[in-house]
Amino acid sequence: MFVKNTLVNFDDRIHYLHFLKMLRLMVQGTANNVVVPQLRQFHASAVCCKLQAGRYKITPKRNRPLTYEMANPPYYIAHRKSWNSWDTTSLLDGQRPAETSVEDVFIRRFVNGTWQDLFCSEVIIKRQHNLIRIAGIIRQGLPARKMYFLIGYSEELLANWLQCPVKLELQTVENKEATIFKYI
């Protein structure tokens, strides 16, 4: 901060006057909403220390449905819930970790787009050697012919694109409410 006695040259005095002008503008603003033109703005609010990462917020009417996987917080992975992608690429000296992640995102988008609004659970991707197994729970909203067509269609296209065998392992439920564990 500038002190009047230490101002030596003309430039320091100009900066000091500009600083005082900005300080006056800051004082004239309200305590909560300070606008400082031509300066970097900063927020003087309290630091938000969140301790609940990966949890869903409780709604006022408690009408948000959660499946069993969604109801358990992340620190229960491998105890009460499992991973959505099963592979060994993230281990030390794992091969192709970036490509595997991109392929997993592509598989999830393809499956959610092909089986539009039929999946009641998350898409689980399991990799074993060169075989990719895709698991999930779907609604019984399709005739058997269409379901078998979509299974074959998905397996063939994904096998051609990913250059490895792909197998869909699906379970069916009557309606989506059968997979709801609790409401928050």
UniProtKB/TrEMBL annotation:
Give UniProt keywords alphabetically. Mitochondrion, Ribonucleoprotein, Ribosomal protein, Transit peptide
- CC terms in the record's Gene Ontology section: mitochondrion; ribonucleoprotein complex; ribosome
Q: What is its main location?
A: mitochondrion
Question: Which compartments does it reside in?
Answer: Mitochondrion
Q: List the PANTHER family.
A: MITOCHONDRIAL 28S RIBOSOMAL PROTEIN S24 (PTHR21244), SMALL RIBOSOMAL SUBUNIT PROTEIN US3M (PTHR21244:SF1)
Gene name linked to the record: EOG090X0I6M
Q: What is this protein called?
A: EOG090X0I6M
InterPro entries membership: Ribosomal_uS3m
Q: Which Pfam families match?
A: MRP-S24 (PF14955)
- Record family assignment: Belongs to the universal ribosomal protein uS3 family.
GO terms for biological process, alphabetical = translation
